[in-house]
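Notes from the 1:1 (GR / supervisor)

We went over the backlog. Supervisor wanted to see one worked example end to end before approving the batch request, so GR pasted a single chain during the call. The sequence is below; no edits were made to it. Supervisor asked that the structure be written out right there so they could see what the output format looks like.
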Amino acid sequence: MIIVTTDFVSGKELITLGMARGSTVQTKHLGKDMAAGFKTLVGGELKGYTEMMNEARAIATKRMTEDAESQGADAVIGVRYASSAVMQGAAEIIAYGTAVKFAE
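Structure output shown during the call:
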């Protein structure tokens, strides 16, 4: 599966199948959430949250790819990510793009 942020795949004629999307809501356990709260007092990277967001993007991308495959896609173009806070310490990540098939 080819996944690109562009609206094309070089050298390929594309047939649009539809939107492909995948999402997840992730949170860190209470201990890491409290540690992150203390970290805001001194500054610096919140590594627990960085890990959480990286994991969430990977899950959302995998689910988007599965959605595209279920449509018979060869690629997903125009891929974007969005996030939103669901509650304190929890975030939703959505990956979305256009599922396409290569014209023969």
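Supervisor's comment: The helical segments are 30-42, 47-70.
Batch request approved.
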